[in-house]
Design a protein that fits this description.
Chain B: It is a multi-pass membrane protein. The structure holds 2 protein chains of 2 kinds. Chain A is mostly helical. Chain A has 4 helices and no strands. Chain B has helices spanning 3-26, 35-42, 45-56, 73-98, 104-129. Classes of the chains: A mainly alpha, B mainly alpha.
């Protein structure tokens, strides 16, 4: 066995994503579908709170804050040009004054992922503080559950969009001047 | 199948979709599911616009004539929007039903009718685009 300069035994670079254009567009569609599922579950909770809600707990702006955080995080994460992240592998020291803006891309990407994780954590916080602590029954509890479903769907949508944007077609090449 | 038969068949199909949505509103005297028609009519638009923009873009500087196999960012954004719009069209009646704003029959009829309208538009585009260029991948 040849000497490898990896840190771990398992080399994740050997795990290749399937390269297909169909799979890529399917992933993009699936990401959109998941985002819409999350959005409509939140809409469902707020319309339910307005119409047939028999309890005193209502959906207010506080419940929407995790969704807004997740959405902003998703937009940040997926609008970063990914070639910026890897362009200087040698000068990997943080805040290196060398070439490129890789550190800026990494900081912004970190901000985006923290917004996503903060959105998911915030939905759990709203669920616990607003619904579980008051010991309400299930039709009212469903509004908190849909908040968690919403933020999880946005997070999965972001993950799938990220993965499917990294699928490159093996046989496509563009001769750019 | 010649194009005239296709058009007649598809228009009858489309009319049945509209009929289902209108019945879902009129039978229950509740005109909230009418928004489904609007959503499913808008749903094919992003892909049509993106493909039109990409096919008319001047690709002289970058010799990338592989529009089908290498989609641009705009096309992917439009695919994403298409996915959200389809789910919106399906989930709007479900939300209405869950909040006791419409009946269950109205929900089923508006969902089926909306999907018929959408599929009809897609089949229409697919039928008449495969005559021009023999590609087998259908954009939906």
């Amino acid at each position: 066995m040849d000497s490898r300069n990896n840190l771990f035994r398992f080399n994740l670079a050997q795990l290749k994503f399937p390269k297909s254009q169909k799979l890529r567009s399917f992933g993009v569609y699936l990401a959109g579908i998941l985002f819409a599922v999350g959005f409509w579950s939140m809409i469902d909770a707020s319309v339910y709170s307005k119409t047939v809600n028999a309890s005193t707990i209502h959906i207010t702006f506080v419940d929407w804050i995790p969704f807004i955080c997740s959405t902003i995080g998703m937009m940040i994460v997926n609008s970063i040009e990914k070639s910026n992240l890897l362009n200087d592998p040698n000068s990997s020291s943080f805040l290196s004054t060398g070439s490129g803006n890789a550190w800026a891309a990494r900081v912004i990407l970190f901000l985006g992922f923290s917004l996503l994780a903060g959105g998911l954590a915030g939905s759990f916080m709203v669920f616990i503080l607003k619904f579980l602590m008051k010991k309400v029954g299930f039709p009212t509890l469903g509004m908190g559950v849909s908040n968690i479903v919403c933020n999880s769907c946005v997070m999965f949508s972001c993950i799938i969009l990220w993965l499917s944007q990294n699928i490159e077609d093996e046989y496509s090449y563009s001769l750019a001047l | 199948m010649n194009p005239l038969n296709k058009i007649i068949f598809l228009s009858a199909f489309l009319a049945s979709g509209f009929l289902l949505i209108l019945l879902s509103c009129a039978l229950f005297n509740n005109y909230k599911p009418l928004w489904v028609i609007f959503i499913f009519l808008v749903a094919p638009l992003p892909n049509i616009l993106a493909n039109t923009i990409e096919s008319t873009r001047d690709d002289f500087l970058t010799f990338s004539n592989d529009h089908g196999s290498n989609p641009s960012q705009l096309q992917e954004l439009c695919k994403y929007i298409t996915g959200t719009l389809i789910v919106s069209g399906v989930s709007l009646p479900i939300v209405f039903y869950h909040c006791h704003l419409i009946e269950v029959g109205s929900m089923l009829m508006s969902i089926i009718g909306g999907l018929i309208v959408y599929v009809d538009i897609i089949i229409f585009i697919w039928f008449f685009s495969e005559e021009e260029e023999e590609n087998d991948d259908f954009n939906f």
